[in-house]
Amino acid sequence: MRDWEPLGAVDPQGLTGARLQLHWMAQAATAVGKQLLAHRPDFSEQSFQWSAGPRALVQDPVEGKRPFRAGLRPSPPALLLAGNAGEVLRELPLDGRTLEEAYAWMGRQVEELLGHPLEQPLERPGELPAHPVSGGAPFSSQSAEAFAEIGRYFADADRLLRQVREGNPGASPVRCWPHHFDIATLIALDPGADAGKARSIGVGLSPGGDSFSEPYFYVLPWPAPKGDLPELAGGGWWHTEGWTGAVLEASRFTGAADQAQRVEDFLTSAVAACRRSLGGQG
C-alpha cells in the first residue's frame, strides 16, 4: 500500500499510558458534537474521522460565526478546533493540562467560534478505562514517540479501512468511536432491515482495550458464526471468548517487512470468511 507509515518504533505493549490519556482527553471534543450536532440513530454525531492535514481525529462541522470541527491530535498531543479545509483555528497543547482545564478551554473556544454561549456545559464522559488523568492528574506527553506511534496507527488504519469500504458496497464511512476509541467501518449486509435482524461485518482497528492491551485489527461478524472457522491470512486468528471475531494484533505484523500487505491479506480473508459464514457472497 502506498503511503503506509511503518509501525513498530515503539513496542505495541508500551502504548497503553499514552492511549488512555488520549482516550480521556478525546471526550472533551466528543462533547461538542454531542451537544451541537443533530442526533443520529448510530450516535455518529459524537464520532471522529481521521484528517490527514492536521493528522488529527476531527468531528463533523458545526455551523457558527465561523464553522469548525472539534478534534484531538495524537502527536504532539493537543485538542483542536479545525476549519472545514483542515486548517487549525484553535489549539491547546495537552502536556501539563488537566481534564478539567481541557473542558474549560474547549467550552470557551467553542463559544467564541459560535458567537454565543453554549446552552449547557459540555457533558463529562461516562465510564472509561481508569487512568490518573480522570482523577485530576495532569496529562503527560513525556513519551513523545508513543503518541507519534498512535498517530501512525490511526493514519494507517484510516487508509486501509477506506480501501475496505471502497471494495464493499454498503459499508459505512470510516469513523473513530469515542467510547472504545476504535476506528472502523460497518459493512451492512441487510440495508434497511431491523437492527436486531440485520447481518453486518465490523472492520476496524482498536488501539488497545480490555481484550488486548496492544493495538489490533479486527473483523466482527454479526450474528456470531457457528461451527468451524476457517484459517485466516496474514497471521490472523479467531477470538471466541466473550465475543467472536477475527483478530490480528500489532505484535504479529510490526516485525514484518511487508506490514501493509500482512494487514491487507488478513482483512481481505477475514471479511470473505465472515461473508460466507453469514450467507453472503465471499
Walk me through the structure:
With 282 residues, the protein is α+β, with helices and mostly antiparallel strands. It has two domains: 12-135; 144-277, no CATH class. It is 28% helix and 19% strand. The protein has four helices and eleven strands, in the order αβββββααββββββα. Strands 6-7-8-9-11-10 form a six-stranded antiparallel beta sheet, with helices on one face. A five-stranded antiparallel beta sheet has the order 1-2-3-4-5, with helices on one face. The chain is globular, with a radius of gyration of 19 Å. 41% of the residues are buried.
Secondary structure elements and their pairing?
Layout: H1 16-36, E1 49-51, E2 56-58, E3 69-73, E4 78-82, E5 88-93, H2 99-114, H3 144-166, E6 175-177, E7 182-188, E8 200-206, E9 216-222, E10 237-239, E11 245-249, H4 259-277
Antiparallel strand pairs: 1-2, 2-3, 3-4, 4-5, 6-7, 7-8, 8-9, 9-11, 10-11
Helix pairs in contact: 1-2
